[in-house]
Design a protein that fits this description.
- The protein has 648 residues and is an alpha/beta fold.
- The protein folds into 2 domains: 297 residues, 4-Layer Sandwich (Nitrilase/N-carbamoyl-D-aminoacid amidohydrolase), CATH 3.60.110.10; 318 residues, Rossmann fold.
- It is built from 19 helices and 20 strands.
- The strands form 4 sheets. A 7-stranded mixed sheet has the order 13-12-11-10-9-8-15, covered by helices on one side. Strands 5-4-3-2-1-14 form a 6-stranded mixed sheet. A 5-stranded parallel sheet has the order 18-17-16-19-20.
- Helix 3 links the parallel strand 9 and strand 10.
- Helix 8 crosses helix 13.
- The longest helix is centred in the middle third of the chain and has 23 residues.
- The protein is elongated, with a radius of gyration of 30 Å.
- 48% of the residues are buried.
């Protein structure tokens, strides 16, 4: 897999003041994982122990630190240029002053030493008793028989030409300051920040630490690995917990929770980090704030390891909340409702008109409308729901649409489109027995005409029901269901529509809309279909959308990683392979994934002309196809190079 950096954090057992034993602990971890991670990160002052106190001024400890550091460095040489980079904490003496440092080691060399910028000297901390602070500068120092770059303005470029990543380092307290070094490092190019820490535990600090690291990762658009001292530090007055964290662009990739032991190893996606930095122009604008600080690039010519899979959970349904599902769904639903409420108030309309099919999309739109008029203290019949049976309508969907409208108290109307569509077939000379695109689209446009004209007659406006996935694939009839006066589902992908109908439908059934649970269940179980072709002989749905365009599970996956992170087709394919392997529910083989991925790109790019004139609708997530907001594309893109073919 491309563009991944694998980082490991650990909180080894520390032997306070015993450098030899601490080196042995670190060597043991390094030996086991040297070919399993690009970087192995240890806590602050891990060579000596953070809690040595006045022992830091003892010459024996300082000399042993240099010897231990050289021994560790020599140890890495046997693993060669492909061995992991090792980052350890150590007290380093420079020009008669002592610094709390991080040493970056790889293949028998100390690549760089970074001193701590801010020294805590309050509460339980008194680091200024032993250590000196360092301004942003750079010099070469001697450690053993090596000349080593030293400074807190260093950015380490790890990797080889064309396949490298920029690394910045800060140490514990640095992250807790108003302007952490990590922010300055990030806007000067560092993509991954490593933090060697010794953060003790007090009540509430665990969550505060998560918030702090997550916020830096989010605002700096970076990967952030945090390794903290563990339980074997001195407990004379404080206790350490070994809380290790990894965040990527504000998202928690994994953690070793306080007082739990173990190794944390995760992959950072450089594609995601680089995409968001390109897209976020405010990030680039911040660079001018620190022009006076010159950063020095240090090269570490290590070959990054080949990754056959990503060490992270990859969901087949990236749009669907994995945790706190009802809470997240309620938040999304409230945004939809708020958008519609505002439009109702602004237009001073007497009603809203919805075509209700008995499918998922129109159900969600109907729930949004029912809640909006309820919030505005308007009669429930302000929602005019129209079922429009045609050639493909089944008893099941028609019954469900009417039942749902009854339960919600809508103004229910039934207007068949059969007679009008047959008249139109006659007018344009179309043979009704030919079930082609004309046969289907005539019905869709007739339904839209009915909705528009009823809205005019009643002094209302039409609510569109089409979802984000349909817009992405162009699975809508131009100037048919493609068009409305306000589209409440316009940024809700199909996989999320199903979840919202499930969670919100049952929630509303318990909170004011009694009796809708049973019909909601049946709607969820109904196959996705436009119902434009005649049903089977037994009256069941014959036309199933996913038989034609492919699984919405796959299409929403492709859509998310194409628009959210701008990933290349092969990256998305490999991510999808990983997601399938991790899934117990969804199984697709490689040929199937490539087939529908090609369909996705073909439909997505060819159907841009429909999105260029799509109706208004509120954005609820990070992916939107609105031409007025997130997506501006020409309609004539030549997309052949996105497709999997013989050359691949």
């Amino acid at each position: 897999m491309e563009n991944l950096l694998r980082v490991l954090t650990a909180s080894p057992r520390v032997h306070i003041g015993n450098v030899t034993k601490n080196c042995d602990e670190i060597k043991s971890i390094y030996k086991e994982y040297a070919n399993k991670a690009d970087i192995i990160l240890m806590p602050e002052l891990s060579l000596t122990g953070y809690t040595c106190a006045d022992l830091f001024e003892n010459r024996n400890l300082l000399d042993n630190t240099v010897s231990g550091l050289m021994a560790l460095t020599k140890f890495t040489e046997s693993f060669g240029e492909n061995g992991s980079a090792l980052v350890v904490g150590a007290p380093i003496e420079v020009s008669g002053e002592l610094y709390n440092c991080a040493a970056f080691i790889q293949n028998g060399k100390i690549i760089a030493v970074v001193p701590k910028t801010y020294l805590p000297n309050y509460g339980e901390f008194y680091e200024k008793r032993w250590f000196s602070a360092r301004e942003y500068d750079f010099e070469n120092i001697e450690i053993g028989d090596m000349t080593v770059p030293f400074g807190n303005n260093l950015i380490i470029e790890l990797g080889q030409k064309g396949k490298s990543v920029k690394i910045g380092i800060e140490i514990c307290e640095d992250a807790w300051t108003p302007i952490p070094p990590s922010r300055i490092l990030a806007i000067n190019g560092a993509e991954i920040i490593l933090n060697l820490s010794a953060s003790n535990e007090v009540i509430g600090k665990e969550q505060y630490r998560r918030n702090l690291v997550g916020n830096i990762s989010s605002t700096c658009l970076c990967g952030y690995a945090y390794a903290s001292a563990g339980i074997y530090e001195s407990t004379s007055d404080i206790v350490f917990s070994g809380h290790n964290l990894m965040y990527e662009n504000g998202k928690l990739l994994g953690e070793i929770k306080p007082f739990e032991s173990g190794i944390l190893i995760r992959d950072f996606s450089l594609t995601k980090i680089r995409h968001d930095r390109i897209a976020n122009k405010s990030f680039a604008d911040c660079k001018g704030m620190f022009n006076g600080r010159n950063f020095v690039k240090i090269i570490c010519n290590k070959k990054l390891m080949q990754k056959n899979e990503i060490l992270a959970k990859v969901s087949m349904t990236p749009f669907v909340p994995s945790k706190n599902r009802l809470e997240r769904c309620t938040s999304i639903f409230n945004m939809q409702v708020a958008g519609l409420q505002r439009r109702l108030e602004a237009t001073k309309s007497k009603c809203v008109v919805i075509g209700v099919s008995g499918g998922l999309d129109s159900t969600l739109a109907l729930l949004v409308a029912a809640q909006a008029v309820r919030n505005l203290n308007l009669p429930s019949k302000t929602v005019v729901g129209i079922t429009m049976p045609g050639f493909g309508t089944t008893k099941r969907t028609k019954s469900n649409s009417i039942t749902l409208m009854e339960k919600l108290g809508c103004d229910i109307r039934e207007i068949s489109i059969v007679k009008a569509t047959r008249q139109h077939f006659e007018d344009i000379g179309h043979d009704e027995s030919i079930h082609d695109i004309t046969y289907e689209n005539c019905q869709a446009r007739e339904r839209t005409q009915v909705l528009m004209d009823v809205a005019n007659k009643e002094g209302g406006f039409v609510i569109g029901t089409g979802d984000l996935s349909e817009l992405a694939l162009g699975w809508c009839t131009y100037n048919g269901d493609h068009m409305s006066m306000y589209a409440v589902n316009t940024s809700i992908p199909k996989t999320l529509v199903r979840t919202l109908v499930d969670e919100i439908g049952h929630h509303l059934g318990r909170n004011g809309f009694d009796g809708i649970d049973e019909v909601i269940e049946d709607i969820i179980d109904t196959p996705v279909s436009p119902e434009l072709l005649p049903p089977n002989a037994d009256g069941t749905i014959a036309q199933k959308t996913e038989d034609t365009v492919g699984s919405y599970i796959l299409h929403d996956f492709f859509l998310y990683y194409t628009l959210r992170y701008g990933m290349k087709p092969n990256e998305i394919f490999e991510l999808c392979q990983t997601a399938v392997k991790q899934s117990d529910e969804y199984k697709f083989d490689d040929a199937e994934i490539k087939k529908w991925q090609n369909v996705f790109y073909t439909r997505f790019f060819r159907q841009q002309f429909k999105r260029n004139c799509m109706p208004d609708g509120v954005k609820v997530g990070t992916v939107s196809v609105s031409p007025r907001g997130d997506l501006r594309l020409p309609s004539e893109i030549e997309f052949e190079e996105f497709l999997f073919g013989d050359k691949q």
